[in-house]
Design goal:
Oligomer: single chain
Distance between the termini: 72 Å
Number of helices: 12
Order of helices and strands: HHHHHEHEHHEHEHHEH
Shape: elongated
Radius of gyration: 23 Å
Largest sheet: 5 strands, parallel
Structural class: alpha/beta
């Protein structure tokens, strides 16, 4: 066995597959361009790290349930002027996520709440965080059936391991008192441990109507709002406005 084959075997044992894939071409180029040993090693390991980061991003994105098209770059700040690029860009250092702070986006349907939640989730994934996007309706189903349905148990486990959980469309459908209790238990588990983004078309004063119990609502809001930043989105529906332009 020659030295190059031995190196490839060692790369296999060390699970450095990306380096192994480019080794032949890189060695040829290094010899032709008279690249130093230090630069050669730097190129090889940079490639390995880059490939691993790409694979890790793909895994996190697949798990997240996020929409890849709802990016921050695609968000129309000129239409939704109750949000500014500056205040959103300040969130991209993810200090709030490191401290398990929450973000709450309130406003009428079509004002960009879900889009912004997706956009911040995608940026968080790019920065290496585990993110799960889930509608309030599906979340309740998961909480109710996690003991009897494997798919629900799997999703529940993902929620508990996430750095950021995005709960979309809170308030569109009312929940029973039993369901509200399950939601309260989850929020209690997340409190000061996991960051949450919530989008809702209901003001806080209306949350008791959704949850059906003022005491539980107060307890939930107390935990969510203790460390949080609240964004109130206003204006017309972006979807309806653009549909009218097309018509």
């Amino acid at each position: 066995m020659n030295k190059k084959d031995n190196i490839k075997n060692q790369l296999t044992v060390l699970k450095l597959a990306a380096i192994k894939d480019i080794l032949d071409d890189t060695l040829i180029k290094a010899e032709q361009d008279k690249i130093s040993y230090q630069d050669l090693l730097d190129d090889l390991f940079n490639h390995e790290v880059k490939i691993r980061q790409q694979k890790a991003f793909k895994r996190r994105f697949k798990q997240s349930n996020l929409n890849k098209d709802k990016t921050l770059e695609n968000f129309d700040f000129s239409f939704q002027n109750s949000l500014s690029k500056r205040e959103i860009n300040q969130l991209l250092d993810f200090e709030w996520l490191e401290q398990a702070f929450n973000l709450i986006f309130l406003g009428p349907p079509g004002t960009g709440k879900s889009h912004m939640a997706h956009a911040l989730g995608l940026k968080a994934i790019e920065s290496g965080y585990k993110v799960i996007f889930i509608s309030m309706d599906y979340l309740i189903k998961v909480l109710k059936t996690k003991e009897i349905i494997k798919k629900s148990q799997t999703m529940f486990n993902k929620l508990k391991k996430a750095d950021l959980v995005i709960i979309d469309e809170f308030g569109y459908l009312p929940v029973s008192k039993a369901e509200a209790n399950l939601f309260f238990q989850l929020i209690t588990d997340f409190y000061e441990q996991t960051s949450i983004i919530i989008t809702s078309n209901k003001s806080f004063s209306k949350w008791a109507e959704v949850l059906g119990d003022q005491v539980i609502t107060t307890a939930i809001l107390d935990r969510i709002m203790h460390h949080s930043e609240i964004f109130n989105l206003t204006g017309k529906s972006y979807r309806l406005e653009n549909r009218e332009k097309i018509i």
